[in-house]
Amino acid sequence: MQTSKGRRRAAGPSSTPRVVEVINTERPRDLHRDARRRRGPFRQITEFASASGIGQKAGIALAATGLVLTVTVPATSPVMATDTGATPVAAFAATPQPAISAEPGAQIDFSRSAVVTQADPDGKLKQLLSAQSAGAVSRAASAGSLGAPLATLSTASPFGYRISPITGGSGDFHRGQDYVAQCGTSVLAAATGTVTFVGWHQYGGGNRVVVDHGNGLETTYNHLSSFSVKEGQTVSRGDVLALSGTTGASTGCHLHFEVQINGEVVDPTGWL
Predict the structure, then answer these.
(1) Which value, to the nearest 10 degrees, does the dihedral of the CA atoms of residues 198, 202, 207, 210 take?
(2) Which of 100, 111, 229, 251 is the most buried (most CB within 10 A)?
């Protein structure tokens, strides 16, 4: 049949509704499902590995993935192995100890090498002179090994050739360093040593003190006004040896300081 809008409508009887088929068939039950639910994934994997015969490989894989934490407790005694005769055998051979040859009441001195730092110039000087003669010490090694002979050093005339302050002639060889010092200023020992001369120096040094530091190294202090030490006395670095002055071939108060190696003068600045 055709409607007013031109559409066709079925004229036959209405179709019978489809009947929904209810399926009540039960699926077969897995007898081990509940057991698997109660077991965690780690236990399932280990049981599978054990059942399949690859337990060792599975253990390595589990350790690599971080699922297995192995804690090793160090043994407190040597590990022992047992041979076929059930006799304990040490797993490693102990290092034999040397026999003690000292007497029961002997005193043993555990000496060690000296430790020298830049803050220990006396130790540095001793090390230099104990290893070699002062003449073999390089300028780079000797620098800073002697202390200042005055609390404050201000050079008045350097070591080497100069115009003589006495005669005014050129070519005068100055055997040491002249430092500015008011008369009566404390003159200090440049390092530990033994006083070998206290007295008048006939070649222009005036009142003079000489200190022997060993292995050919000596220091001299000249034009002094008075002495504070005597020959044979042992002095330490910084001890007062005398007071400065202007005795001998001098034109004013100052300190003439020399460094001698095997009797020959060298530039003191190489040691200060």
Answers:
(1) -40
(2) 229
> CB under 8 Å to 174, separation ≥6 — which residues?
157, 158, 159, 160, 161, 162
- Tell me the pLDDT tens digit for each residue of 187-206: 999 999 999 999 999 999 99
CA–CA separation, 96 vs 232, rounded Å? 54
Q: Answer whether 205's CB lies under 8 Å from 248's CB.
A: yes
Residue 91 makes CB contacts below 8 A (sequence gap 6+) with: 78, 79, 80, 81
Burial 151-174 (b: 16+ CB within 10 A, else e): eebeeebebeeeeeeeeeeeeeeb
> If you search the block for the tokens 């005597």, which residue do you land on?
230
Question: Do residues 134 and 216 lie in contact, with contact meaning Cβ atoms separated by under 8 Å?
Answer: yes
State pLDDT tens for residues 165-178. Answer: 888 888 889 999 99
pLDDT surpassing 60 at residue 223: yes
Return the closest-CA partner of residue 236 out of 211, 258, 217, 271.
211
CB atoms within 10 A of CB 272: 18
Quote the tokens at residue 180.
Answer: 């500015």
- Find, among 223, 224, 216, 222, the residue nearest to 193 by Cα: 216
Token pair for residue 229? 């030490």
CB 2 within 8 A of CB 8: yes
Residue 68's pLDDT is 47
The answer to whether the CB of 115 falls within 8 A of the CB of 231 is no
Q: What angle do CA 229, 233, 236 make, to 5 degrees?
A: 85
